[in-house]
Amino acid sequence: MHTTTQLEGRSDQPALHTDNNHRETSLWETVFSKENLLAALKRVEANRGAPGVDGMTTEELRPWISQNWPEVWAELDAGTYRPAPVRRVTIPKPNGGERMLGVPRVLDRLIQQAIAQALVPVFDPYFSGASFGFRPGRSAHQAVRAGRRAVQDGNHWVVDLDLDKFFDRVNHDVLMARVARRVKDRQVLKLLRRYLEVGAMGDGMSLRNKEGTPQGSPLSPLLSNIMLDDLDRELFKRGHRFVRYADDVMIFVRSERAAQRTLASVTDFIEKSLKLRVNREKSKACPVWWTSLLGFGYYLTKGKVKIRVDRKALKRLKVTVRRITSRTWGVSMAHRMDKLNRFSVGWAAYFSLSDSPRVFEEIDHWVRRRLRQAQWVQWKTSQRKNSMLQKLGYEFGEQEQGVAVQRKRYWRASHLKPLEIAMNNAYWDGQGYKSFKGSWSRLKPA
Fold first, then answer.
1. DSSP codes of every residue in 412-435
2. Per residue in 31-78, pLDDT tens?
3. What is the pLDDT of residue 394?
4. pLDDT tens for residues 150-171?
5. 10 Å Cβ neighbour count for 173?
6. What is the distance between the alpha carbons of residues 446 and 431, in angstroms, rounded to a whole number?
7. Where are the beta strands (DSSP E) in 61-97?
8. Contact, 152 vs 205, CB < 8 A?
9. What does pTM read for this prediction?
10. Is residue 215 a contact partner of residue 167, using CB atoms and an 8 Å limit?
11. Helices 256-273 and 220-237, interaxial angle, to 10°?
């Protein structure tokens, strides 16, 4: 095994510079320059991810390239390279149902990542300022703040658009026409087309992809922004205030009549011009207070628009916490606490934009009760339960000596006074619990 990859030592690899005749570097050469490929390799390795149809892992990619890159490059340069079909997997959607993902093999992830890195500088400077998804220097929090400004300016009605299976329905010809507006390199266009059409493995057979862009590939976020840039331009031309994060689109207007009219006309534009489908059951025109954007909602207090955690996000949180704190999960409290803290800190970081501290207090109150229930089960015997309560400082009254053997269900027992006093907030702090409100307070932007 070589200590350096062929990417680091190639002499015939295109480089990111011009030659002595000051010839401009082609996009193809930029994509497959040593610097760009090495950056893509590091990104693929850092992202890890599941193997594709060939079973190769990200850990195996670098040594494999050390041996095989010259052959891969020869096929790429000759235009004969054929991407492998993606491996289809399904993951549950937050709001129910399943989402189909395509997992490319790691070699194709490397090539797609290299293409994406070269195309971002070509397209991103021209994207709309109202587009926030999967772009350098932009985030979901910026999108939510932009929405709040629109609402604060009096736009209290919204058109909440749901694009039906967006990644599965993208028309290849329409998408490639938009890519070709800025990309003139035929080799890059040809390779991009092959990645769109590569298809997936199903029942041992490779099924060609006639439409759609594989969600889960390094290219899909950029291609979605390219595809929907025309929608952004159309909305700007009409003078709308809007926010788009990938295929999540929210348009802010001042009245119900304007919202209904906008929903109808924008739906018509999307379906006729972009050849996409709008899910009419999920798309709606409604007061802004009734809907959510990227897990957040808005509310009005004392004339100011504030940001809240959406109730659907809270439901998803409870599903995760119930799994981690399940009384039937036979793990140590230390292991349980580690899992819970990893989740709580990440969740609080994302929702630190919220202006509702009471929500985080209520979450902590519920989580600590879940933990008391789990601890109560782990103490097992009545004798040990009584002993631990006394050890933690609870003094039984004359009428309470049998508390541990009372025939209470575990959830009801977790709310008993002796348990609440013995396993109070200080107790869980000592166990290492990182509270949701504490993390929110530390991470909330000034």
1. HHTTSHHHHHHT-HHHHHHTT---
2. 999 999 999 999 999 998 889 899 999 999 999 999 999 999 999 999
3. 85
4. 999 999 999 999 998 787 778 8
5. 10
6. 30
7. 86-92
8. no
9. 0.86
10. yes
11. 130
